[in-house]
Specification:
With about 425 residues, the chain is an alpha/beta fold. The chain is about 35% helix and about 20% strand. The chain has three domains: about 45 residues, LysM domain (Membrane-bound Lytic Murein Transglycosylase D, Chain A, Roll), CATH 3.10.350; about 45 residues, Roll (Membrane-bound Lytic Murein Transglycosylase D, Chain A); about 240 residues, Glycosidases (TIM Barrel, Alpha-Beta Barrel).
């Protein structure tokens, strides 16, 4: 974490690397002007740890899943050395575990913009799946496709599985009436499922992902049955099936977003689920972390009571928000910003970045040129590391990002450093 007076050159010398290497790997917006509180990932194998009061080789080794003897060996110190506060230990890289990762892509207009294509190219090496958002189901069971410009060739070049996302979006909003028709009208249902298979064959999709939201509570079992029929058909065709689930903490949770999503049934029926564990902080609400670690954990721990860990993919935002203060309900919505944009805003306004230990998220406040106060919450290396630690602790299947096009290079650095991203082979 950057402190007052730090420079890239000074940081680089501490960690036996170069300023250019740090700047390039972190895509630091202004290498000559670091922001106090900004987090930087040091591009080395393993990591360094500064000894704190009460630390011993044994306690540090336990923290990093290694042994005191190994730490003593790589740091060329005696096993019984009394560690001085501030002494910098090198921690060798831990063995990587497999993970599946997905990222959604949401093109606008008639084609995938060059910016989004480039984002897909850059992210594909780190992805198991790339999801095209979205194929909109119609009331007659047909599909309206999103633009797919070059996505197939981009994914095929990196052996990334193309995910076909089906939604009940109508007039830019999730429709419970459309959902009712799709789930209950047998003719429409059959046409929709057959059209999905034909479209998947045509475009090379290998996972079919249903993101049906705000369904009527009374359609809960109809949705379950729809998924059973879809699974049987898709599996015969060599296709996977997955769903997106609202972030519930109990089976009886009230509210339009939650009630028709049956965690236990989805866990039994589909190949995996994506938990939408973000948007606690959202554009129309008060300023707060988008995905605070406590509520995220609560959702996942509930999910684990209903399905096995190897079916659970944790949702993760690639964005933050800039709120204009004071917040008023129904007022101007917060502006979405990428982690990179957030750092630029902090730098331009001479703001220090703080870190909320409870939420495990960075934030800062500033005053703009029109004397309006702002509060910004976003993601950085610390917040994403907290999520990676949760994935490891709970042994989850993977992580799913909403959405590409918002720059967060530190995420991909840390993902590849700590996990082997699974690439699928279909027969």
């Amino acid at each position: 974490m950057v402190k007052q007076g730090d420079t890239l050159s000074a940081i680089a010398s501490q960690y036996r690397t170069t300023a250019n290497e740090i700047a390039e790997t972190n895509e630091i917006p202004n290498p000559d002007s670091l922001v106090v509180g900004q987090t930087i990932v040091i591009p080395i194998a393993g990591q360094f740890y500064d000894v704190k009061r009460g630390d011993t080789l044994t306690s540090i080794a336990r923290q990093f899943n290694t042994t005191a003897a190994e730490l003593a060996r790589v740091n060329r110190i005696q096993l019984n050395t009394v560690l001085q506060i501030g002494f910098r230990l090198y921690i060798p890289p831990a063995p990587k575990r497999d993970i599946e990762s997905n990222a959604y892509l949401e093109p606008r207009g008639n084609q995938v913009s060059e910016n989004l294509q480039q984002a897909a190219r850059e992210a594909s090496p780190y992805l198991t799946y790339l999801g095209a958002f979205s194929f909109q189901a119609q009331r007659n069971g047909t599909l309206v496709a999103p633009p797919l410009t070059n996505l197939r060739s981009i994914t095929e070049s990196q052996n990334t599985t193309l995910m076909m996302i089906i939604t009940n979006l109508e007039n830019q909003a999730f429709s419970d009436e459309l959902g009712r028709i799709l789930l209950n009208d047998e003719t429409v249902k059959r046409r929709l499922l057959n059209e999905i298979v034909e479209t998947a064959r045509r475009y090379g999709f290998r996972d079919i992902h249903f993101d049906f939201e705000y369904l009527r509570p009374q359609d809960r079992e109809a949705y379950n049955q729809f998924l059973r029929e879809a699974r049987d058909l898709f599996h015969r065709e060599g296709l996977e099936i997955s769903t997106a689930l609202a972030p519930k903490t109990s089976a009886t949770q009230q509210g339009r977003w939650y009630e028709a999503h049956d965690y236990r049934a989805h866990g039994q029926i589909v190949d995996f689920v994506v938990l939408m564990t973000y948007e606690w902080g959202y554009s129309g609400g008060p300023p707060q972390a988008v995905s605070p670690i406590g509520p995220v954990r609560d959702v996942i721990e509930y999910a684990l009571t209903e399905m096995p860990a190897n079916k659970i993919v944790m949702g993760q935002n690639l964005y933050g928000y800039d709120w204009t203060l004071p917040y008023t309900a129904g007022g101007t919505p917060a502006r979405a910003v990428s982690p990179q944009q957030a750092i630029v805003i902090a730098d331009q306004n001479n703001a220090s970045i703080q870190y909320d230990q409870t939420a495990q998220a960075p934030f800062f406040r500033y005053t703009d040129a029109e004397n309006r106060r702002h509060e910004v919450w976003f993601e950085d290396a610390r917040s994403i590391q907290a999520k990676f630690n949760l994935i490891k602790e709970l042994n989850l299947r993977g992580i799913s990002y909403w959405k590409l096009g918002l720059s967060f290079p530190q995420n991909w650095l840390l993902l590849s450093d700590q996990f082997n991203v699974v690439k699928k082979t279909f027969r």
